[in-house]
Amino acid sequence: GAGVSQSPSNKVTEKGKDVELRCDPISGHTALYWYRQSLGQGLEFLIYFQGNSAPDKSGLPSDRFSAERTGGSVSTLTIQRTQQEDSAVYLCASSLVGVSMGNTQYFGPGTRLTVL
Amino acid sequence: EDKVVQSPLSLVVHEGDTVTLNCSYEVTNFRSLLWYKQEKKAPTFLFMLTSSGIEKKSGRLSSILDKKELFSILNITATQTGDSAIYLCAPRGNDMRFGAGTRLTVKP
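^ inputs. structure came back:
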């Protein structure tokens, strides 16, 4: 069946521009997560959506980062006034239920963002 | 269909014991296999394995990959209570999928 999809797969932008990254989770999955992975680093949690609850934004690195999830399905991560340190692979994952320990998260292929 | 199976699902040991965690996988266009430790929201990276038979070590942790038999193991020697966590295996092919994990509990 269809997995998690993300678009674009690659994005090159100039410093100071805004970017939008899209995630389509697996149909029926109630939880959606955004992570980023910088070169040589581990996964960094950004934000977590669970059903209709208020999202957990505790991982967003600055107020230039925001995300929304419309209709409990598609999510968009927006980075305003991009900086070079924002360059990373942005990964989206979804799971059937919430962030209970041991729940399987299915990851998309990621969006590689390069800020020049 | 791509899949990853970890075993055991749960393991309880005492400090000083050695544990072996297993991960078997089937992925399309395999590129690498990653092990993570999850205590809070985001998994903490442990190892990335790309070649068969080459052991990677970090302190008391080590891991090895068998691309022919499609599995990997994670060993932890002289376990400590701080090793208690969920250990996740994530093979990466066309996409990346985390297994359900092994919940390790280390008792004093």
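Chain A touches chain B at residues 1, 3-4, 35, 41-45, 48, 56, 58-59, 91, 93, 99, 101-110 (CB under 8 Å). The radius of gyration of chain A is 13 Å.
thumbs up if we can close this ticket
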